[in-house]
Fold:
Amino acid sequence: MNVVGIIAEYNPFHLGHAFHLAQARRMTGAHYVIAVMSGNYVQRGVPAMFDKYTRARAALQNGADLVLELPPGTATGSAEYFAAGAVRILADTKVVTDLCFGSESADTESLRHCARILAEEPDAYRRLLKEFLRAGTPWPKARMLALQQYDPSISLKILQSPNDLLGIEYLKALQRIKSPLRVHAVKRAGAPYHERRITAECFSSASGIRQELLKNRGTFTPDILKQLPSSELYLPYHGQLPITEDAFSLLLIERLIRNPEEDLSLYFDVTKELSNRIRNCENHFMSFTQFTDLLKTRNLTRTSVSRALLHILLGIQKYEACTVLRVLGFRKKAAPLLKEITLQSRTPLVTSAHDGSLSADWLYADRLYEHVRSLLHSQPFQNECQRKMLVI
Structure:
C-alpha cells in the first residue's frame, strides 16, 4: 500500500493546494493521501485566518483522505521545529511510504545535498556559521551565507526560496531520524509564495488571498472565490472581520503585565535579550502587530518576534514532540487506512479531545482561539472537547 504524506497549513485551501494533492497522488501512485496540517495557529506565529475544521474539510473534499493536526507548539515553531515535528508524525503512522512537498526548484538532489550538510554540520561549515553570527548577521542569512561559502556550487536561488528552504528542513528531519520515506518535490505552480495580489491568470498564493480579504474587510470577492475550491465552506466568514493576531492584542498585553517580574525567556523561542526588550517596551504596546514591529531588530526578524509573543500568550514553554496522532477528519473510503495505522503505529490515534489525550496547552490554545473567533464573528462558541472528527 502506497501512502503519501503532505505537510501544509491550507490557510486558506486554494487551487494550488488542490493541484499539489493531485500531483502527489499521481507522482507516487498513492492509494491514500495523508495531510499533516497546522491547527488554529500557523508557522508565522499568528492565528490562522480560518479555523482548522473548515480548512480540514476543504482538504478532504479536494484530494486528502486523512487530515492529522500539528500541535500548536510545532505548528508555530521555526522551520526546523515545524518540519521535524510534521515529519515525525508522518513517520509515526508507520504506513506512510512517500513525502511530497512543493518546491520552487523541484531539484530534489540539490535540496538533499543542502539538507545533508545541515544535518551533519561539518566543522568547516560550523566555523563559517559562527563567524557570520559573531559579525551580527541574522540567523537565516548567516546560515545561507555559510552554506554557500562552504559549497559554492549550491544555488543562491534555492537558499532564497521559501518552499525550497522548507523542503531542505523536511529532508534534514528525515535524515536525522533515518527515515526510509521516498521524497518527491512538486514544482510550485502559480504566483510566488509572497505574492500579495490576486492573479486570475494563475493560482494565487494563500498570502495574496489573505491580503485581499484584509483589504476588503472579509468580503469574498468573485476573484477570491475563483481561487477557492469548496468556496461554500467559507460562507460563515463572508463579511466578517478576518481573524488576525490583532484580535488577540488585549489578551497579549494582559498576559505580559500580569506578572511584571516574570522572566519571559522561560517561553519557547524567547531569548534573554528579547525578554528584556519586551519588558523595556511594554508600556508602548498598542497592538500585537505594532508591538511586533517595535520589537524586531536587525538580528531579530519580525516572524521570530511574532512566534515568541504567541508562545508567551499561549503559555508554551518548550518544544515537545507530538505524542498522539490527532485526527481532524477522514474520508469514509479511507477507513482501511485508519485501521492499518491503528494496527501498525505505537502512537495513539486520537479522534476526539474529550478523553484527555491532548495536552492542557493544546486545549487551552484551541479554547482561546475559539473564544476570540466566536466573539469577533458573533457566532456560537464551539467546544473542542465536544467536537467530533469530520467524516465525509
Observations:
- Residues 134 and 240 are 47 Å apart (CA to CA).
- The radius of gyration is 21 Å.
- Strands lie at 3-8, 32-38, 41-42, 46-47, 66-70, 98-103, 182-187, 325-330, 349-350, 390-391.
- The first helix runs from residue 15 to 28.
